[in-house]
Every structure is written in C-alpha cells, then in structure tokens.
Amino acid sequence: MFKINIHNETAALKAVVVGIADDFGGIPKLEDCYDPKSREHVVAGTFPSNDDCILEMNALVSVFEKYDVKVYRPENIKGLNQIFSRDIAFVIEDKLILPNIIEDRAKEVDAISNVFSQISEENKIEMPIEAMAEGGDIMPWNDYIFVGYSEKEDFDKYTVARTNKTGLDFLTETFPNKIVKGFELNKSDIDPRENALHLDCCFQPIGKNMAIIYKGGFKCSADVEFLVTYFGEENIIEVDKEEMYNMYSNIFSISEEVIVSEKGFTRLNESLRKRGFTVEEVPYAEIAKMEGLLRCSTMPLIRQ
Questions:
Q1: Residue 30 scores a pLDDT above 80
Q2: Which residues of 188-225 are buried (b: 16+ CB within 10 A; e: fewer)?
C-alpha cells in the first residue's frame, strides 16, 4: 500500500500513472470519434499511428525518469485507446476519486486496477451514478478545487461535455474544507477550435502563482475575470485560439520550477523560460491530434 497525496498541480512529483499507446486500435471509424479534433484528423487522413504515439509517450516517461519520478503504466487492453489516463480517476488530498465517465472509456479503469489495488479502500471514493466527471476538468489548487463543467442544457446537448453540475456538487460536498469553484466551458462537437474539451484545454496553473489561460474557452466572462484577479494579470500567459487548438495549456508540471512541454510550442516555451522555468521539451504533436496532450496523459498519485 502507498499513500497518495495531491494538493495542487505543481508540487514536486513523486509518482504518476502515464497512459500507454501500445495497442489503441488504429484509426477509429468516424462514428466512433467522441471529440471533434480526432474526427478532423480521421477525415483528413492524418490520424496518428500507434508507433508514433508510443515514441512520444516514451519520450515523456524518459523525462520523468530523469527526475526520479516513479512511473506506473496501465495493462494493455487490445484495441482500446489508453493514452489519456488523466480522465478515468483523479487524486485530491489523500483520496482517489473514481468518477463516472462516458461508456466508451469505462474499460480503461480496469487496466489500472494493479495501481488502485495498492491504495487502501478507505481512501477510494466512487462518485454516485448521476455524477459525471473526467479528470481533465478537475484541478486541485491549494485551498481551491477548480472544476470545468457544463450545466444540464449543454451537458445533454454535447458529447464533449464530460463533467456535469451533479459532479461539481459532489466534489463540493466531499471536500468541505476546499473552495470548489466551477467554470462553465464552451463546447462544440463539430469544431475543435470552439471546443474546450476539458478545463485543462484552456487553463492550467504553473509555478507558485502563475497560469496559462485561453480566455475564449470559458462561457462566462466573470470566470475569466476571477482567474485574472486571482493570479494577477502579470502572472498570466495568455494563449490564442490556434494555440489552444494545438493544446498549449495542456503542458505538465513536474515541480514548481520544471515544466514538460511540446517541443513545437516555441512562443510558450520561450515565455516560460523568461519567467524562470526549466522547460523539458518532448515531441507530442501526434498525440495532440486526439485532443489531449501532456496533462491528459498523466494521472499524478503523489506530490511532495
């Protein structure tokens, strides 16, 4: 048994689950795509290959090994996309939260049972059946839990709406010592440039008091104003629509000083270095075609 511990997005990482791309089933049928960016690349004939994704994930694991992070991997289930381990469960404080995710992804949970079996039962919490959430929408940040979600009208309308108000309310009830702050996100099943699939597709805290934000991902201007006020205008790196589409906000923090980023994010990586960060660059542009990047591929278990 080991003790899980996550209080924010940037404390020194000690253990993490990283997805696998060994056998994700090749190019999906158009009707089996459940996000608009994957659909776009299927139509264009540019959907990534198993081999390319494996190389990219191996590059990420190599960075973790460089920083002495313990890496766990799922067991391979043939024909199942298991790259994005972030969404199928998440840790807040010393609790592993098992959410209800879309049916297409339910089998992914079975593949990391070898990890979950090492966590005591008293620290596992299953969300009630009506509460829907994915880990890309859930962001512990010290006194806060930031949550991307959709109200009922949007949740019922869009396949890409993955966290509902009931999921948000469940987290509020489960963590009364935290301020659970919900942000409605803009959704589109058709246009990936108009779709914030998860909160981490348009926002992520970095360092001690900074953040990357795509303001157009938020449905309510008041939520953008809250974040700008909370972090301070000078502490925000703003990205534009095209950069959001390329997943600029979906980098990953190994610590308050070290960030893993895609090697093609030239402007962002220069900006991070100017602010004092060490940037570990990896190739991840193929995986980005499935509307996920570095945060999506990782499920932190222990931070210092």
A1: no
A2: ebeebebbbbbbbbbbbbbbeebbbbbbbbbbeeebbe
Q: Which of 127, 91, 123 is nearest to 1 (CA)?
A: 123
CATH superfamily of 13-303: L-arginine/glycine Amidinotransferase; Chain A (3.75.10.10)
pTM here?
Answer: 0.94
Q: Write out the two tokens for 146.
A: 């930031």
Confidence of residue 104 (pLDDT cuts 50, 70, 90): low
> What is the number of helices (H) and of strands (E) in the chain?
9, 15
Cα angle at 206 between 13 and 137, to 5 degrees?
Answer: 85
Domain boundaries, the chain: 13-303
List the one residue out of 33, 106, 87 whose CA is nearest residue 199: 87
pLDDT (mean) for 83-101: 93
Q: Which residue has the higher pLDDT, 203 or 33?
A: 203
Contact (CB, 8 A) for 202 and 218? yes
Rounded to a whole number of angstroms, the distance between the first and last alpha carbons of the chain is: 17
* Residue 36: both structure tokens together: 């608009």
